[in-house]
Amino acid sequence: MTNPVQALTKSVTVNDNPFMKPMEWLSLLLLAAVILVVLPLALDGFRLNLVGKYLTYAFVALGLVICWGYAGILSLGQGVFFGLGGYCMAMYLKLEASSVENTKIQSTPGIPDFMDWNQITALPWFWQPFKSLPLTLLLVVAVPVLFALLISFAMFKRRVGGTYFAIITQAIAAILTILIVGQQGYTGGINGITDLRTLHGWDIRTNHAKTVLYFVNGGLLVACILAAQYVKRSKLGRILVALRDKEDRVRFSGYSVAGFKVFAFCLAAAFAAVGGAMFTLQVGFMSPSFVGIVPSIEMVIYTAVGGRLSLFGAVWGTLLVNWAKTTFSESFPELWLFGLGALFIGVVLAFPNGLAGLWRERIEPRLTRRVKALRAPPPAIAPPHGAPAA
Amino acid sequence: MNAALLASPVIGAASAAPDYLLAVEALTVSFDGFKAVNDVSFYVDPDEIRVIIGPNGAGKTTVLDLICGRTRASAGSIRYKGQELTRLSESAIVQAGVGRKFQTPSIYDDLTVFENLEISYPRGRSVLGALTFRRDAAVRERIHEIAETIFLKDHLAERAEFLSHGQKQWLEIGMLLIQDPELLMLDEPVAGMSVGERVKTAELLNQIIRGRSVLVIEHDMKFVEDIAHRVTVLHQGRVLSEGSMERVKNDPKVIEVYLGH
């Protein structure tokens, strides 16, 4: 009899926009448990390091969920930001590995070996900041974000969007690869920056260091998930969804649309950069093959397979596709790329919201029904929990 | 006689110039030489419901596009409360107090009715503001109040996608109301509505008129008669006639090009 009144007051007072819904907390807990407990216990050092490498791509996938899934901005150039973050980290590590003592056989001791091979006799100006660790950690994020700001501001102010934006980001990925390969003396060329040894005196090549880095990586990933979740559930997150749907309506509701798109793109770039830096630390080198078109598109596929609207889905998708890549390319190296292409087409045609979509549409409703059935008998407990969200 | 008809409101207008909410003067826009709007002038008073009618292609929607900044004028001026709008960005025009409803319901299908209204709430419009926006009691109260006005208070938690066509139109009107604009522009608000929905929409417009002006494009003559204070008839990008519905209806030029059909 008091139902209508209750319903009204409830909708006014109850916090209908919590930081995370119970199901999302559960997903986070499950993911954190698998990454930080189950995998380290189950896998040997080599395999764990591989998973660590996969997880660095998950940072990119997280960014794509916000940028592509939520805001509808498809970027086919996320490798650029992954690469820039990775290169910033690699430049610091390379300088530390190129101490005068280590490089005394070179004609110019104290500069990276590839510079010496290319007859460069002094450290270029843009390498100078990477002598300092704090500055490097800042630049790892700042360089890619500023670059993303430049690209996206130029394009979104002129209202370039959709396919054109995707094509331009892809072109930038190609251009940056060519630039890195061509400027061998400054960048290490096609081989990239290799033979990295220590981080502030701490040897990153030992098994112990790799395990530590794996956990740092896992922790950063969880932190990035929480940051993305904050953005997603803020009004800004809903504005991004609104933009994807009806950009003009948002514009004529008094918003300067370009700023919001720039934010989404820069956030994705920041996540990708963190992933890139962790990649360099765990794998021990950085090369242009992680910057170009192919890795950029692969990262979009990870996101699509996992579910472009789900932060957790994107991480699972990245792990799954990379695990498949390692397994299949060990046995059928020729076929892997076809398999990847087929997977992408399959996802787009059959389940456009990826694994997370399958979960939400097929499995979760069944689970909630089960849980409801279990909770139903003692009626006193049911009301305070409220109905689980649909 | 026709000349007198056309001239009289303009002369009457000139004597009270500072009181206009919106003054459109000699507005012209040309698309590759085709003048979609050609030397259009009209003036809207505070608290007035002005309806723009005219045959297809007369430039009605283009006039609204020009006022809200979606299309840029080739010549002429649009002054809103003495402020020139032709040079402002779209978002600045909205923030100055001009709201625009599009012809087809333009709402966010993937969000709930509540969230649709919340996005239009005039606070936290910058990137940082949107990130730190809090859904406090004032916001909730205002959204519930608006939802009541637009007959959607029982649909707040529903995804907008599942509303009926008429409800979507109301939701978009509600999204404008929550911004509390002084000038509300509606492009065919009752097109595609059932008879019952039309009556309710007329009632809604009469209710929200207080404290603001409304500029409406509409084809439904019955509806226009119900709501209009004054009517402006556009034809081939020019103002053909202007005045009360009674006067416009009896203007032979209007009958010839528009009402006679």
Automatic annotation (TrEMBL), chain A:
Keywords (A to Z) from UniProt: Cell membrane, Membrane, Transmembrane, Transmembrane helix
A GO CC term attached to the entry: plasma membrane
CDD domains reported for this sequence: TM_PBP1_LivM_like (cd06581)
Membrane topology: Multi-pass membrane protein
Localization annotation: Cell membrane
Predominant place of localization: membrane
Protein name: Urea ABC transporter permease
Annotated NCBIfam families: urea_trans_UrtC
Transmembrane region(s): 25-43, 55-77, 133-156, 163-182, 212-231, 252-279, 299-323, 335-359
Automatic annotation (TrEMBL), chain B:
PROSITE patterns the UniProt entry points to: ABC_TRANSPORTER_2 (PS50893)
Superkingdom of origin: Bacteria
GO MF: ATP binding; ATP hydrolysis activity
CC per GO annotation: plasma membrane
Keywords of this entry: ATP-binding, Nucleotide-binding, Transport
Family annotation (InterPro entries): ABC_AA/LPS_Transport, ABC_transporter-like_ATP-bd, ABC_transptr_urea_ATP-bd_UrtD, BCA_ABC_TP_C, P-loop_NTPase
Gene3D superfamilies recorded: P-loop containing nucleotide triphosphate hydrolases
Annotated ABC transporter domain residues: 22-261
Protein name: Lipopolysaccharide export system ATP-binding protein LptB
Species: Methylobacterium hispanicum
Lineage: Bacteria, Pseudomonadati, Pseudomonadota, Alphaproteobacteria, Hyphomicrobiales
Gene it is expressed from: lptB_5
